[in-house]
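ok so i was messing around last nite and threw this chain in just to see what happens. nothing serious, just curious
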Amino acid sequence: MSPLRTRTGPLRSVPRSRRAAVTAVAALLALCAPTAATGAPAADGRPHRPCVASRPPERGPARDVLRIAERAKAEMDLKSVILRVTVDGREVVTAALGESMTGVPAAPALHFRNGNIAISYMGTALLRLVDRGVVRLDDPVARWLPGLKDGDRITLRMLAASTTGLVDYVRLPEFQRAVVADPFRRWTADELVRLSTSKDRWYEPGTNWSYSHANFVLLGAALEKITDTRLDVLLRREVLGPLRLRETRNGFTPDVPAPVLHAFTSDRGTYEESTFWNPSWTTAPGAVETTDICDLARSAAGIGSGRLLSPSSYRELLDPGTVGLGHATEKCPAKVCLAQTEAAHDGLGVLVLGDWVSQHPLFFGYSASQNYLPSERLAIAVSTTDGPNAAAGHSAHTIARRIAAALAPAHPVPDFG
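result:
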């Protein structure tokens, strides 16, 4: 079973002489214009371009990116690989390899689940409220969630930065058995929080770090109470709308809007379709989203640049005090309470991985990865689906790391968890 996750580290610029690879990418931009015509104007008056593949590149960085994806698809036994790379918002390459279903080619416009990428939207929405003086990060959540045990000791910062000590219900054997037995089951927020809070916490609030899906279920509930607004509406207003993520939307059912990228998994012992397995347990209701690869690249740049935030809130996004936390205890093993270092740590709903701001979700046959390098304004977005012999793990993020190594060799993406 595959939990959804994230992390991050300090953002440093490098000398001009070490930026040759990205300079080459920038020089290629004029040769990589999309083949599709501009679509009809959207509600904000700006044209909405359909998400289509760029012209097949014959040489240069765009061709290198495609070769990386082609090799990885074969090596990892992936059914599909969809990717988009941009510099300063301008397309370097957009491509789709493989199939959605047998005989149905993959395409950039296909929608897929974006998993915990939505928690980066929750983190940014929270910080926008901080910027407006509506709340403070260190406000106790008891004010909005009076029924939460120790809510007077747990702050909004702790929920968003994963330092509450709440057990991750996804790791509980009883939860795993239930999901495997009935992957179509709809889980309520109350059920999920009860699973977590019924167990002894891993550590005292604020003293350690561990990823728990319960943190973000609770953060979503708190954001709704703070703003008196349904979470999906709030995220659309505060993040999705301002970043023009027009193909990213919440779903209160397991449906995926057409056109659909279908997913398949061997997690239950046989290779079967998992496209419409219920993702209600993955995060807060209102943040269970689908997207396409063009939105994912735009999301990487919008969130990773801190475009919607004040400078002080952007600093909090990248390091809310997690660096230095993360150590094994009697209750929390090292693989759960992961060490948070300057090079790789959790921010507020994002991962800081070296000089990159990232996030990489995983959900039963779907894998995705969004990554942004602020110093070069380079965004890398990858989505994959599994073939019958694919190994478990973040295949999309593995491909994204390889692309990053080719395009920005001075800025490797460190492994983290």
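not much to say yet. Confidence is low (pLDDT under 50) at residues 1-22, 30-43.
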